[in-house]
């Protein structure tokens, strides 16, 4: 089965991508990873927040031989780590639903792995707090693929405009009252 990891794909031209982190991420099968083990850590600059509810994980797959599709969207719960970074993980209420979808896709793969393709994405929407970030502000993203495992870098010191803004020159919008 072939997977397109969309979160990283759009940043592939970004010089802040950490190749060793991408290699570690590519070694993990979205079908075998326990939802409780996956975590995303964001280090945001002052003046930037993530809009509540915008952090989700989407897993989709298609079987070309039967035209069957499956797509699941899972809420990523947020908490602040001791180092000040924002940690996102699949909300425990979604673990069973995600495991069921993984089992379905594994079943498809066992029948015809060449006909099964999929994608995994983690979109985030940023917003501006107060005057917003400094012009040279950066964002770093780390991931964990084992519950007690370390967070490894995926994106290091990427300009905010390359990660969280809709376009290179579009300003971040002011945060709603409920931003993280």
Characterise this structure.
- The structure is a single chain.
- The protein is 19% helix and 34% strand.
- The chain has four helices and ten strands.
- An eight-stranded mixed sheet has the order 1-7-4-5-6-2-9-10. A two-stranded antiparallel sheet has the order 3-8.
- It is elongated.
- 24% of the residues are buried.
Short note summarizing the structure:
With 180 residues, the chain is of the alpha+beta class.
Helix content: 10-25%
Given the C-alpha coordinates, what overall shape results? elongated
Q: What's the number of extended β-strand segments?
A: 10
Structural class: alpha+beta
Strand content: 25-35%
**Low-pLDDT regions:** 1-13
Distance between the termini: 36 Å
Rounded to the nearest angstrom, the radius of gyration is 17 Å
* Arrangement of strands in the largest sheet: 1-7-4-5-6-2-9-10
Query: What is the succession of H and E elements?
Result: EHHEEEEEHEEEEH
Overall pLDDT metric = 81
Largest sheet: 8 strands, mixed
How many helices?
A: 4
């Amino acid at each position: 089965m072939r997977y397109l990891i969309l979160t990283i794909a759009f940043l592939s031209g970004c010089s802040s991508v950490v190749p060793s982190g991408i290699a570690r991420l590519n070694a993990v099968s979205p079908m075998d990873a326990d939802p409780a083990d996956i975590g995303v850590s964001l280090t945001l600059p002052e003046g930037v927040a993530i809009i509540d509810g915008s952090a989700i994980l989407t897993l989709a797959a298609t079987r070309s031989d039967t035209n069957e599709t499956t797509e699941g969207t899972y809420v990523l719960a947020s908490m602040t780590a001791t180092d000040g970074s924002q940690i996102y993980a699949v909300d425990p209420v979604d673990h069973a639903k995600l495991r069921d979808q993984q089992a379905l896709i594994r079943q498809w793969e066992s029948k015809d792995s060449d006909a099964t393709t999929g994608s995994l994405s983690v979109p985030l929407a940023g917003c501006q707090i107060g005057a917003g970030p400094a012009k040279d502000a950066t964002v770093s993203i780390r991931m964990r693929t084992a519950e007690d495992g370390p967070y490894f870098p995926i994106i290091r010191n990427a300009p905010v405009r390359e990660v969280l803004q809709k376009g290179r020159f579009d300003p971040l919008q002011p945060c709603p009252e409920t931003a993280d």
